[in-house]
Design a protein that fits this description.
Layout: H1 4-14, H2 20-39, E1 44-57, E2 62-65, E3 70-75, E4 82-83, E5 88-92, H3 95-122, H4 138-173, H5 179-234, E6 236-238, E7 243-246, E8 256-257, E9 262-268, E10 272-278, H6 280-283, E11 291-296, H7 301-304, E12 307-321, E13 324-333, E14 337-339, E15 345-347, E16 353-364, H8 365-377, H9 384-388
Antiparallel strand pairs: 1-10, 1-16, 2-9, 3-5, 3-8, 4-7, 5-6, 7-9, 10-13, 11-12, 11-16, 12-13, 14-15
Helix pairs in contact: 3-4, 3-5, 4-5
């Protein structure tokens, strides 16, 4: 048995040695520990999950492809140059197309000249047939001169036959010539008049037919011109979107490109977002509108701090990154720069790597301590191998 008198004697010997200061310190420490334990249920902290990612534009990279093959004639851009949407990047040689286009343009001008003259000729009245002016095409000016010569010759013949007929009518009245001779003169006169009408109608029909043919030919030439201009436009490669162009290696004046070949890639200068890759065990905790903090690898967070943002989109399907399934999570940033204490700004750039912390919930320190203790002490949560030992 323990000698109680001895214990009491030891306490009497020890207690006088404890100073008041030591007793106060002990009491303060004991009170602090008690207060800390009592405050655990009332102190809340953010619980987050982490995911790596990178900064990228909202829009995808756009590939610049050729629609036709050819030799590069002009190169207007250089590597990493900022371009606008629709800005010409390069032009392929188009000598054959240019020659065809000049030929078609000349043929159109000729057809329009023919159509103008034929429209004027087909509108001529009977009294204007031999007095038309203002024809501009050599072809129909010459053709009209030939027609006018034949028409004037016929009209002169008509006048002569008319005079002969008038004389014969008078002679017939005077009973100098028989009626048969008068009828012969009338027949000759009518034949000349009929020849004139045939000449006029045939010429008008030819002009009308030629007018229709030239109009059809002009329509066809205009279609050819549109096609050639479209092909010529295809030879000028333009930027589909605005941004920074890259991957132009091997492109120079005189180089040959195939139809459908990728001649460059444009990274759009659109709003920057952060694309993170969440693991399957964390994806169920993430949802659209959830807050997140981002640590930029290029900026020391102790000096530059963190960026804040929200989740814009959570992928419904996974992708493989380094043979590991991950889910894409796109996040919006509240701003595109970080600031030092002196006010200097460091702006974000596409391709910077990021460590994201998604705020899942707020829990008290007591709950976290309880969960940790439960993981340690609950046999159900322990690995099977450790329970079998």
């Amino acid at each position: 048995m323990v000698n109680t008198s001895l214990i009491g004697h030891e306490l009497l010997v020890y207690l006088p040695r404890v100073t008041v200061r030591s007793q106060l310190l002990y009491t303060a420490v004991l009170f602090a520990i008690t207060a800390a334990i009592a405050a655990l249920p009332f102190i809340y902290v953010d619980v987050s999950v982490q995911a790596s990612g990178l900064i990228r534009p909202v829009a995808e990279r756009s590939e610049v492809k050729t629609t036709t093959g050819g030799t590069v004639a002009v190169l207007w851009i250089r590597e990493n140059q900022v371009v606008r949407a629709g800005q010409p990047l390069m032009r392929l040689q188009t000598e054959i197309l240019d020659t065809k286009l000049r030929l078609v343009t000349a043929q159109q001008a000729e057809k329009r000249m023919y159509i103008r003259d034929l429209q004027q000729l087909t509108r001529l009245t009977d009294t204007q047939l031999v007095s038309a002016t203002g024809l501009i095409s050599p072809l129909y000016r010459q053709q009209y001169e030939q027609f006018r010569y034949l028409a004037q010759e016929n009209l002169q013949t008509q006048q002569k036959r008319q005079r002969e007929l008038d004389v014969n009518r008078q002679l017939y009245v005077d009973k100098v010539i028989p009626r048969l001779e008068l009828e012969d003169k009338e027949f000759v006169y009518k034949t000349v008049v009929a020849q004139y009408r045939t000449l006029v109608e045939r010429q008008r029909s030819e002009w009308q037919t030629a007018l229709s043919e030239h109009r059809l030919a002009l329509t066809d030439l205009m279609g050819q011109e549109r096609q050639l201009k479209q092909e010529q436009a295809f030879s000028t490669i333009k930027a589909p979107v605005g941004g920074t162009i890259s991957q132009l290696s091997g492109r120079y004046v005189g180089s040959f490109v195939q139809a459908g070949e990728i001649v460059g890639t444009i990274s759009p200068d659109s709003t920057l977002i952060i694309e993170c890759y969440a693991t399957p065990k964390d994806i169920g905790l993430l949802q659209i509108g959830q807050k997140a903090h981002f640590q930029i690898a290029a900026f020391n967070y102790n000096q530059w701090g963190l960026l804040e943002g929200l989740i814009l989109d959570v992928a419904n399907d996974f992708i493989l990154v380094e043979n590991q399934p991950v889910f894409k999570v796109r996040c919006r940033l509240n701003r595109n720069f970080l600031t030092l204490k002196n006010g200097y700004r460091g702006y974000l750039k596409k391709g910077m790597t990021v460590q994201a912390r998604f705020i899942v919930t707020r829990r008290s320190l007591f709950e976290l301590l309880y969960d940790k203790a439960d993981d340690w002490l609950n046999p159900v949560n322990q690995p099977v191998a450790s329970r079998l030992r």
